Amino acid sequence: xxxxxxxxxxxxxxxxxxxxxxxxxxxxxxxxxxxxxxxxxxxxxxxxxxxxxxxxxxxxxxxxxxxxxxxxxxxxxxxxxxxxxxxxxxxxxxxxxxxxxxxxxxxxxxxxxxxxxxxxxxxxxxxxxxxxxxxxxxxxxxxxxxxxxxxxxxxxxxxxxxxxxxxxxxxxxxxxxxxxxxxxxxxxxxxxxxxxxxxxxxxxxxxxxxxxxxxxxxxx
Length: 220
Hints:
This protein is mostly helical. It has a domain at 2-37. It is 46% helix and 5% strand. A two-stranded antiparallel sheet has the order 1-2. Strands 3-4 form a two-stranded antiparallel ribbon. Its main location: mitochondrion.
């Protein structure tokens, strides 16, 4: 490009000053060319800025790694809070992995304070008690499913198949029969920590997604 430009200028009339007809870019130095052709802004870089990284690390450093809640959630009222929320906490049926009793659910006041600290300042305070009730109900239901799964498959897939092969309606009876032969139920599972995995697809979800592609009219 630079050579063509110089030839065009020469054909129209050369300058009396030889330096004026030469390109200012030193073509013979590849290192200089590379520096000149590179943009100072890394457009393809997707790493977070130092400020964002500091903010993210500062937020996660305040969370309890066992339940991803803040290390200390006060029961005090939030600033400008006029609606009173209960401060009592309900004990769950979920045993702690440490063996130190069961996990406790946060009180409505603690839940509201945690929401505010996470930036959800538009939360309807009158709905927090219902939110906590639904939260606890879903956790209890999920834990019940985990306990039943461990009863059936905790000793291996072969035993789980032995329980399930006669159909779901006969599985509870078959499970009780096997437990009687084995000398009673196996030890109850415990929960080490709460940790959501929203980006991980379950086997059931993967199967339904595949069926939706094959039979979109029925599973789409």
